[in-house]
Fold this protein.
Amino acid sequence: MRNEIELEAIIEDYLKGKLTADEQQAFERLRANDPIVDHRVVAHKVFLESMQQYADILLLKEQMDAVHKTIDVDSLSDDLKPHPSKIVRMWRNNKSAIAVAASFLVLAMVMLYSIQSQTKKDGSFEALSREVNKISRSQNDLIRNIKSNNTPKSSATPAKFGGSGFAISSNGYILTNYHVIKGADSLYVQNNKGASFKVKAAYTDPVNDIAVLKISDLSFENLGSLPYSIKMTTAGIGEAVYTLGYPKDDVVLGDGYVSSKTGINGDTLAYQVAIPVNPGNSGGPLIDNNGNIVGVINGKQDKVDGAAFAVKSKYIMEALNAIPQDSLNRRVAFGKKSSLKGLKRDKQVAKIQDYVFMIKVYN
Amino acid sequence: MSIKLSSSVPTDREVVLGILNNSEEALNKLYVAYFPMVLQFILNNNGDDDDAKDVYQEAIIVLYNKIKSGSFELNSKLKTYIYAVSRRIWLKKLTQHSKKTNNITDFEDVLVVDDDVEQHEQKDMQFDKMKVALEGLGEPCKTIIEDFYIHSLSMQDICEKFGYTNTDNAKTQKYKCLQRLKKIFFQS
């Protein structure tokens, strides 16, 4: 009996690792030689482990019970038990589902909106290219629809469309865009002092979007020598340029630079310029800082900021060469030094604005 | 300061580290933090607050054992885990009492925790087995064994507590109790 108790105590100490190294070795030898002792060790180990688990969980439960007493279960139950109202119950039960549904709805709306704006954009590009196919280059033409009631002196009805143009000779030849005057019944030009003159189309070039008008009004007086000349060479990217035009009833200056040597879709007939232009700027001269005309503003691209286009000056020359030379009195110079060179911008504009006209189209 | 700030709902990391370090405070915070969630679930699914207490404590034990065994990975929120375990345990209890379990009202996402709950059931059986065996011992054996193995009293303390004349007698008594307990435990 006493031996049994001692053996049990040794087994327990052995399993708990309380034996000294010598004792442990001795006991392990005993274990190896005596299967009965060995089995008792294994059985006691299983028992101790079960006991340990039992103890752990029991202590855990005791601790949890202690915490549980600190919770006011009754008032919590009152708050959380099924609500008599069906709607409140439904809200509580499906809170997450409702949240998911709501966020899905928001997401769907955002997607729908973005898809819509996407297709809108695609549509405008299509429209743009169609326009390009139709008249080759003049996209989103900058013809102004005049809605004001200012009736010109020489006309009973207000002008329907407007554009800009500039003198290419002192005896009243005005250059503008073909798309400005296309389909016109009658044409008038108005200078910056407000005087209107009747004009006729003298030359049109739909491919290059250029038209030359001739003032036929008797009240028109000779313009004197033109301050600007036409640049023979092409302008480089980055060259500072400005334009004068009539997007409203007064002449407006637009400032910018040449941003590309080609127009829309790589069109080599035109420059791309970064100038703020508006309907009514079509046909206005594009002038560099030395007072040379480098192009004629003729359009801008939809949905792209700061992309306006101008017909290159060499096509102006072609147009001029197509007109009988003896009818042009003191015509604009090619490639010569302009009299504006070296002047400040405001002085240049003051001189040029007398030669820039508003084109008024009636149809 | 930072400890005070996080006093209401402990972070998951805080709880896991706390349990691994045997921190009572971490467990208490955990217990208080998520009991209302389980209470709400049980109350809305044919249970009362006593059921909620039992189920919740079992779920905490499952979590505790899982963390202690080192197999717990924080790939879901503790809240979600506790909810899923509680839900599983409560569904089993409902089927045992042959109450309907189709129309369960849920309040949180539901994880699949069947394995964990099954493991827990086996452990729970062991627990009940030991409990029954101890109950079957009768006094003073039950208290002697509990004091020695659960409350870790020394034989000296037990000798004094029960009034044995010397520790050898106490040891003999403990030996006899232990033999009986083992017999009941291994035979049942």
Observations:
- The interface with chain A takes residues 24, 27-28, 31-32, 35-36, 39-40, 43-44, 49, 53, 57, 60-61, 64, 105-109, 123, 126-127, 129-131, 149-150, 171-172, 175, 178, 182, 185-186 of chain B (CB under 8 Å).
- Residues 2-112 of chain B form a domain with the Rna Polymerase Sigma Factor; Chain: A fold (CATH 1.10.1740.10).
- Confidence is low (pLDDT under 50) at residues 1-7 of chain B.
- The two ends of chain B are 53 Å apart (CA to CA).
